[in-house]
Amino acid sequence: SINGKRKMFVMAKGNQYLPLSRKWKKGDVITFHLPMKVSVEQIPDKKDYYAFLYGPIVLAASTGTEHLDGLYADDSRGGHIAHGKQIPLQEVPMLIGNPDSICKSLQKKQNSRITFSYNGEVYPAQGKALELVPFFRLHNSRYAVYFQQASEEQFKAIQEEMATAERKATELANQTIDLIFPGEQQPESDHGIQYEQAETGTNKDRHFRRAKGWFGYQLKVKEEASRLLITVRKDDRNKVAILLNNEKLAVHPTVSEADKDGFITLSYVLPQKLNTGSCPIRFIPDGTEWTSAVYEVRLLK
2 - beta bridge partners? Predict the structure, then answer.
């Protein structure tokens, strides 16, 4: 509405411009009213992720203030890139229910600021209600704007998948005799790291080591070992030769399917079991300039 002798009311329908055509004069005031109600908006690719809006205001939840390395940009090369630890997507709160029910579960708090509590089912359990505030008000914090939504049936399937993964991880841990994470200081130090023309790095928040020359460790064989697992990237698998006890492993490994981040496991059945004690392992390029980037070395019973 416009104040003065004449008032004009215009209603918007969806996303459109509202042209106001009149002769303007000093003191004219335009007043507009927005429908301030909670709604959800699906992510553009139509996956099961939704954002909450209060009228036109996008809401967000703080997800912690840990590992905010690079929060403030500087003028160095790449100084504008946040380089803190990435949080796995599965740790972002998942909302259980259909889109209508999750929308109704968001309740505005009775205070002077725009703050909301989500009172529906959330996984992982938060211990307290999830709080959402206007996105423009969140500073110096990790945050989530889009939240995964799953129906009760979908969540049961996800739980079964997680239980299967956890069971496999437990079985693998029970078979493990020794484990090295290349590129991580303590595991490498514990296993007598040695190298020539080698470097370390991270990819998908996992540490690795690779070399133009070589790198190696002393495996700790606490009981008889018969299998060796090496984790590399799928597109990097044919670039490394492995020497175990100073002899090249000539056996062809069994290759796992790539996980969602592109990592695979090369499983070598050892030609003869390793006896207890210390066993040197060395990685060298296999007809390439560099070895594969190696993310994990695991010795199994």
Answer: 30
